[in-house]
């Protein structure tokens, strides 16, 4: 059981931004990652479709042999985590939203003006806003969906005129003049950190990926499930094995990692609520 893999999944390549934090805290654990690059972005899809996709991916990871699953996707964490826990009661799930909320509640200054940015589905859920207001009623919270960010990032863009135009469109200077910080409520968005900082150097940025792994470490320690040594190379699956996905793996993952497109991974038709 100790040497089973840790599953990580996201709607695409954005979840790979959790890897540096994972490798720092859990270097002996083997990762099996699934990026649903063929069906990204999730943020514009119905809740029922997001849940179906998440169930399908978790079934795939279960067959790979995992002792826990990290949901490195704010959209899935906001919409589908309860459905996943009900469907797979033997698998512990760690969503990215709750630890981020707790961390921001600890770290934010009194009266801090925070803008939450994410996909349409994440922002529409109001999960970040509602839970942060319960923990820190003094914070001034606003939220904005930035639906063009994920498709641009999946195309390999992190800077340049298109990225600048997208940031200007979703986050105009007139709006951010009244903000102290941005909460990047999508794991793709940290890949735009440099571009955002260039336009708004005085904004503090909260990256939820930085807060996801400690909860998993505590769970593994408390249940005597920490691996003694890494048994095999990490495995990275993508439903569409694009050059951009391969490039991200080369940048962030160990050199010996396997990069694969899964066999017999059937698409789930989009369903309306």
Descriptive report:
There is one protein chain. The protein has a six-stranded parallel beta sheet with strand order 4-3-1-2-9-10, sandwiched between helices. With about 270 residues, it is an alpha/beta fold. Helix content is about 40%, strand content about 15%. α2 packs across α4. It starts with a strand and ends in a 13-residue tail after the last strand.
Q: Count of helices?
A: 13
Residue stretches low in confidence (pLDDT < 50, at least 5 long) are 267-273
Helix content: 40-55%
The counted number of beta strands is: 10
First-residue to last-residue Cα separation:
38 Å
Q: Which overall shape is indicated by the principal axes computed on the Cα atoms?
A: globular
Query: Numbering strands along the chain, what is their spatial order in the largest sheet?
Result: 4-3-1-2-9-10
What is Rg?
18 Å
Global structural class: alpha/beta
What profile does the largest beta sheet have? 6 strands, parallel
Relative strand content: 15-25%
Mean pLDDT: 94
């Amino acid at each position: 059981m100790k040497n089973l893999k840790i599953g990580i999944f996201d709607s695409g390549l954005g979840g790979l931004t959790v890897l540096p934090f994972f490798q720092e805290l859990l270097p002996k654990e083997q990762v099996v990652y699934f990026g649903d690059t063929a069906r990204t972005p999730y943020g514009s899809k119905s809740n029922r479709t997001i849940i179906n996709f998440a169930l399908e991916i978790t079934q795939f990871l279960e067959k790979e042999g995992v002792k826990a699953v990290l949901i490195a996707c704010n959209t899935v964490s906001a919409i589908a985590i309860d459905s996943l826990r009900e469907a797979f009661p033997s698998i512990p799930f760690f969503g990215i939203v709750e630890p981020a909320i707790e961390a921001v509640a600890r770290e934010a200054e009194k009266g801090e003006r925070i803008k939450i940015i994410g996909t349409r589905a994440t922002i529409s859920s109001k999960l970040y806003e509602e839970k942060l207001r319960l923990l820190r009623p003094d914070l001034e919270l606003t939220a904005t969906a930035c639906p063009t960010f994920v498709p641009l990032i999946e195309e390999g863009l992190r800077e340049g005129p298109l990225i600048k135009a997208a940031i200007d469109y979703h986050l105009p200077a007139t709006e951010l003049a009244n903000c102290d910080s941005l909460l990047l409520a999508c794991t793709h968005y940290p890949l735009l950190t440099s571009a955002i900082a260039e336009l708004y150097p005085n904004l503090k940025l909260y990256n939820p990926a930085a807060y996801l792994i400690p909860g998993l470490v505590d769970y593994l320690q408390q249940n005597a499930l920490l691996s003694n040594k890494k048994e095999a190379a990490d495995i990275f699956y993508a439903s569409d094995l694009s050059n951009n996905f391969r490039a991200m793996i080369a940048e962030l993952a160990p050199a010996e990692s396997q990069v694969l497109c899964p066999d017999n991974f059937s698409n789930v038709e989009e369903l309306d609520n």
